[in-house]
Amino acid sequence: MNWGFLLGGIGRALSHRNYQYLWLGSTVSHTGRWVQRTAIMWLVWELTESGTWLGIVAFADLFPLVIVPLIAGVFTDRLGYLQIIRAMSVISFVVGTVFAGLVALDAITIELIMILTALLGISDAAAGPARISMASQVVPRADLSSALGLNTASFNLTRIIGPALGAAIIGIADVATALAFNAAAFLVFLLLLLRIPMSVSPPSGGTRRGFVTEFIEPLRYIAGEPSIRFVFLLLSATALLIRPYIELAQGFVGTVFGGGPETLGLLLGATGFGAMLSALYVARRGRTQGLTRIVVLGFIGTAVMQTLFAATDNLWVGTAAIMLLGVALLMGGVGSSTLVQNAVDQQLRARVMAVYISAGFGLPSVGAAALGAIADLGAGFQNALIGAAALTAVIWLWALTRQRAVAQALEQSASPADPGATSPATNTRSG
Length: 431
What we know:
By secondary structure, the chain is mainly alpha-helical. 81% of the residues lie in helices and 0% in strands. The longest helix has 63 residues, at 349-411.
């Protein structure tokens, strides 16, 4: 079947057999992780009925994303993407199995939950640079935008399906079964990864100059490359000023819309649905050319939609606005990831993407804390988000003056020497 003809860029990405294994395995493992997060929060509440412990366990799960990717990026470039993902999948499977076994034997404690959750979070964070960079090894550069868009679309789909599936498993069986599902998901991922030849993802090579030097090198590279720096400035502004709306959504539910858990579920489901649609659009589009303009357009789109969401007290208008906010946010997110991977030096890719992960997933916690404090100091949630959106619009005016200058460097075609261009390994196609 000619999937490329039917699905455009999505079909071209899925026509590469090694990408099929990576995409399917990632989708299964992401689903398992969301099932696990749901099960852990349920278990923590059952054991403690404490909001403080819920926060501590959530911190143990997510905080590694701030620090660990920066360290893991150095080893990922040294050892190879596939090797790191396989190793972290083994760790996640073992820890997940132990977790499920302890719960099944009724031997779990809140302290063990925190430790095991932290280990799973560290494993996830350590695999992050390799997972986000691996697509560049299993598809040619011409199909990279589609592959990354499809990855993001499936992640957002699992963000919707995973918690619902986790709740269903807990209701039908128990928490131990839900945790065992996550362990099994990582086993499936590992088995699919074993079908990808190790030659697809060799170490980057080059002269090694010591850990500290290699740790600092991607930061210097980003600062010294105007086009890459441009993307990271927009990414950081989005992470600080826009992305915290998710963490602050509960405040809107309580103070603006006057709803309960079902209202929060509606808002988060709507933004996740919008994000999935946006990622599918970028994947279906399948071209790097013009992507800089789309990233800049998505950036101003987030400011407009956040303003509309924050300014209304009508739930249905707010739901529509937050869905479109998800569209704009992911349009910029997938586009910026594609542009960076398209332009970055191959030997620095994993380390630069490690900085990308730390900025994209770490800075929102800083932004949420700052905007939440501004709201509590008297501005209110609505004014805090409107002010952040206004600052985003000012930065967008600056971005317009730089857009054309950086587009050529960001959107350039692959050179014959680029390992991500074309090779027998990356162009293995299914029948």
